[in-house]
Amino acid sequence: MGTCFVVMGFGKKTDFESGRTFDLDKSYRNLIKPAVEAAGYECTRADEIVHSGLIDVPMYKQLQAADIVIADLSTSNKNAFYELGIRHALRPHTTIVMAEDGLKAPFDVNHVVVHHYKHLGEDIGFDEVMRFRAILTNAISVISEQAIADRVDSPVYRFINGLAVPMIGMATPTTPVSPAVPAKPTPAVPDESAAGPTHSDLMRQVDDAVKAGDFITAKTLLAAIRTMMKTDAPDRPEDPFIVQRLALLTYKSRHPTEQAALEAASRLLEGLEPQVSNDTETLGLWGSIHKRLWSLTRDIMHLDEAIRAYERGFYIRNDYYNGINLAFLLNVRASLATDRTEAIADFVIARRVRREVVEICERWLLDNPPPVDPSTTNQKTLEQAQCNRYWVLATISEAKVGLNAADAQQELDKAYEAAPDTWMTQTTREQVDNLRALLAVSPLVGL
Q1: CA gyration radius for the chain?
Q2: How far apart are the first and last CA of the chain?
Q3: What is the pLDDT of residues 290-301, one digit of tens each?
Q4: For residue range 192-228, what is the model confidence (pLDDT) as tens digits?
Q5: Residues 428, 397: contact at Cβ < 8 Å?
Q6: CB distance 396 to 415 below 8 Å
Q7: CA-CA distances (angstroms) from residue 13 to 29, 75, 137?
Q8: Greater confidence, 356 or 125?
Q9: What span, in angstroms and rounded, lies between the C-alpha atoms of 99 and 122?
Q10: In sequence order, what are the beta bridge partners of 96?
Q11: DSSP secondary-structure letter at 338?
Q12: What is the DSSP letter of 186?
């Protein structure tokens, strides 16, 4: 069986140009790995490599020796671009490039074919999964046949005539390669790594602990992964996804107390510089942590931090989640203000944000209509779509309550009818009740 090495990021990553967040683990598990295995190749990503010592050694071996390399450049991942460049320098063919269809590729990547797929938020729809799997499996078959026919897909070997392919064990490369006749693929180099749990194995254990509601175990496992990654590559910056998720699990653990857990999570996120970050995942977490710390301590500093985070996240990402939280907290601060001018400012800004949130949500509903025939849609995809639709409808209704709109109750009833689970409606009812209580005591409600 041939080998395929996949170059891409891990976990959830934010595309800073669009503000969208993609779950790259789902891209790998649902799209890439099944397509590769269907083509008859063994598929490996860096987090699945069993190794001892620095991860760089087996990773570079894979980039040189794998029969096929697939590079997913979604979110303009710098490491993925760098590793793709290494592969193009090492091998004249059998490299496939793919990306989420929102990628704005730099000029140099225009020289290669990029296969595009589409995310729906952080998820990928079932129909898109099946469509792209077929495309990728076919691309693997085609590129394998082209390699046998000595067709070059690396721009390095295409544009530099006579370039020799580097071979392991040779002091200098001796086999010249032209665009017409590239060197034959190099045989795989065995990995001499010691056996042990891989990054991927440990992450699956984290996921299992989260599903079981055991956040303390999940936090402990993820802390071990973080330590392992620091040991593997001490000079590399930390992966924001690992820090973000560790912060989330830390505050969800509520250990040893809820406040202590929130404060520990806040310290973790400080390393990602949330005050100046453009990463909306970091900002959303920072806002949630300080919103909860405000509710526990009534320290105005935490309220201000939460407002700044949600405000920055809203204007970077232009999304309803950050927006509706920002509007609510602005009303909280307005209700506490001793300076009427400050109270009016927060109240008015909250109304403006809510109007924008309604527009964003209405556009989302137009762009994401429910399936015409639900029976033809995968059940898991259908359930996720129903949940997403509910939260958008609930956000519209909360925004209209805050705007004192005439159709606010009508929008609430519409949301409740669409709820796939009762806990979701209970969450919305509590939030709306809290908002109405704030508005009732505000001297500015008539504005």
Answers
A1: 25
A2: 71
A3: 999 999 999 999
A4: 444 567 888 888 899 999 989 999 999 999 998 898 8
A5: yes
A6: yes
A7: 15, 7, 25
A8: 356
A9: 14
A10: 70
A11: S
A12: P
Q: Which of 323, 335, 255 is nearest to 294 (CA)?
A: 335
Cα within 13 Å of Cα(332), Cβ side: 19
> Is cis: bond before 256, omega within 30 of 0?
yes
CA separation (Å) from 365 to 21, 191, 370, 377, 385? 19, 50, 9, 18, 11
Please say whether the beta carbons of 68 and 143 come within 8 A.
Answer: yes
Beta bridge partners of 5: 44, 69
Contact in structure between 294 and 316 (CB atoms under 8 Å): no
User: Are residues 6 and 43 in contact, defined by beta-carbon separation less than 8 angstroms?
Assistant: yes
Q: How far apart are CA 295 and CA 297, in angstroms?
A: 6
Contacts of 140 (CB under 8 A, 6+ apart): 4, 35, 36, 39, 41, 68, 96
Instruction: Please give the model's pTM, rounded to 2 decimal places.
Output: 0.74
Place of tokens 């009812």: 429
Tell me the sheet residues that pair with 95: 69
Residue in the block written with tokens 């109240």? 347
For the CA atoms of 144, 8, 44, 26, the dihedral, rounded to the nearest 10 degrees, stands at -110
Question: Count of H helices and E strands in the chain?
Answer: 17, 9
Instruction: Tell me phi and psi for residue 100, to 5 degrees.
Output: -60, 145
Tell me how far apart the alpha carbons of residues 280 and 312 are, in angstroms, rounded to a whole number.
8
Question: Hey, which residues does 21 pair with through a beta bridge?
Answer: 14
Q: How far apart are CA 267 and CA 209, in angstroms?
A: 23
Cβ atoms within 10 Å of 284's Cβ, excluding its own:
23
Q: Which residues contact 410 (CB under 8 A, 6 or more apart)?
A: none
Q: What angle do CA 247, 250, 253 make, to 5 degrees?
A: 150
- What DSSP state is assigned to residue 120? B
Half-sphere exposure of 304 (CA within 13 A, CB side): 5
From the list 136, 187, 141, 182, the residue with the least C-alpha distance to 159 is 182
